[in-house]
Design a protein that fits this description.
Number of domains: 1
Radius of gyration: 21 Å
Number of strands: 10
Order of helices and strands: EEEEHEEHHHEEHEEH
Number of helices: 6
Largest sheet: 3 strands, mixed
Shape: globular
Strand content: 5-15%
Strand order of the largest sheet: 1-7-8
């Protein structure tokens, strides 16, 4: 992300809910923003929606529901609609194109990869067959960040902040990156994760004291993972027993 100074001196499994998030620090108009929360069933109090502006980034990652196979950013117009509903852009005086849509999807998936790395113990990530070829998510995020701009802004009261330097959907994507930067400063960034289940990958906020959550729902995704692990162990034990019997 390039930061410049302005001339003259002077960031389907269930129904998704909507929540209001105030965002004065990201220079976005006050509006209703889509939240990102799984249902209460099967989810403890330590797992859920991210606080404050970070919920907008969480909702952005969850515009792709891997489990249900639904995509909220299926076209440039769908991207514009979502960004406006999230309060990340003002009234529509512009339209995104294929390039902006591709950048948004690339950003979303890079963020998903980074959030997956926040899981300190990921059963899925430990398997070699799940490794993705190419640059790491962090490297992809760095590359995408270099394609957007931010600038220093001084308000009438003398407060100084970093705001998006682009316009339209690129400005909205810059604001999402600024939210991530703010979360890192506040110490909340590492708590935003994606579910370790390969068939889920839903972004969730880990409020547990130990920050050890790795599934969006212990009773659903966690239970499935444990069942699969049990079946693998049982199958391995059965093969070993057959091998020993054959060699006897």
């Amino acid at each position: 992300m390039t930061v410049t100074r302005p001339a003259g001196g002077g960031v389907l499994r269930e129904e998704r809910l909507l929540a209001a998030i105030n965002a004065p620090a990201i220079n976005a108009p006050a509006a209703s923003r889509p939240a990102a929360s799984r249902p209460a069933a099967g989810r403890g109090q330590d797992i859920g929606q991210a606080p404050g502006r970070l919920a907008a980034l969480q909702a952005f990652v969850n515009t792709l529901d891997v489990e249900a196979g639904t995509e909220q950013l299926g076209s440039p117009s769908a991207l514009d609609t979502w960004l406006r509903s999230a309060g990340l852009t003002g009234p529509a005086s512009w339209q995104s194109g294929a390039a902006e849509l591709a950048l948004a999807v690339d950003l979303r998936e890079a963020l998903r990869g980074v959030l997956r790395s926040h899981v300190t113990h990921s059963p899925a990530a430990s398997r070699e067959d799940t490794a993705e070829p190419g640059p790491s998510p962090a490297a992809r995020l760095a590359e995408i960040s270099s394609k957007v701009q931010a600038r220093i802004s001084a308000d009438a009261d003398g407060s100084v902040r970093v705001v998006a330097g682009d316009s339209g959907s690129r400005a909205a994507l810059t604001r999402l990156l600024l939210i991530a930067a703010e979360a890192h400063t506040l110490g909340t960034w590492a708590r935003l994760k994606v579910c370790s289940a390969d068939d889920c990958q839903w972004a969730f906020y880990d409020r547990s004291p130990t920050r050890s959550g790795c599934w969006c729902s212990m009773q659903i995704c966690g239970s499935r993972a444990k069942s699969r692990a049990y079946r693998r162990r049982a199958a391995t034990a059965s093969r070993s027993a057959r091998t020993e019997a054959a060699g006897a």
